[in-house]
Structure to design on (123 residues):
């Protein structure tokens, strides 16, 4: 008989909304297969309509457009708009991938700038 190691389910609580306490509540008395389905639903935003306490949550519809914040100096530059902004409905994973790509590019750019500075001013 082949034996597989059990996943470290407690780690899932570190990445889902609501944290470890919510993860424990929504997966209490569930099999590994059921926990896997719950985790997939958390990542994809589908299917899991309870908050772990057994009560159903009324899902708020996600708007197609986001309300403009204005164009004042007190609004961060990248959030300034006087017109509604299309909601791209990015998943948590998509946002994580984008952030990773941005930081990777920034590190590469900084290394290139450092190298150019070193070469131009030092050599």
């Amino acid at each position: 008989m082949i034996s597989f190691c059990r996943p470290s389910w407690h780690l899932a609580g570190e990445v889902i909304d609501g944290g470890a306490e919510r993860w424990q509540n929504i997966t209490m008395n569930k099999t590994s297969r059921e926990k896997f389905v719950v985790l997939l639903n958390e990542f994809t935003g589908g299917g899991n309509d309870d908050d772990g306490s057994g009560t159903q949550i009324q899902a708020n519809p996600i708007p197609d457009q986001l309300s403009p914040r204005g164009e004042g100096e007190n609004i961060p530059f990248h959030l300034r708009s006087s017109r509604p902004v299309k909601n791209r409905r990015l998943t948590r994973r998509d946002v994580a991938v984008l952030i990773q790509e941005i930081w990777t590019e920034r590190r590469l750019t900084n290394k290139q700038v450092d190298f150019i500075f070193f070469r131009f001013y030092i050599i």
Notes: The longest helix spans residues 92-122. Confidence is low (pLDDT under 50) at residues 48-59. Residues 34 and 80 are 43 Å apart (CA to CA). The two ends are 66 Å apart (CA to CA).
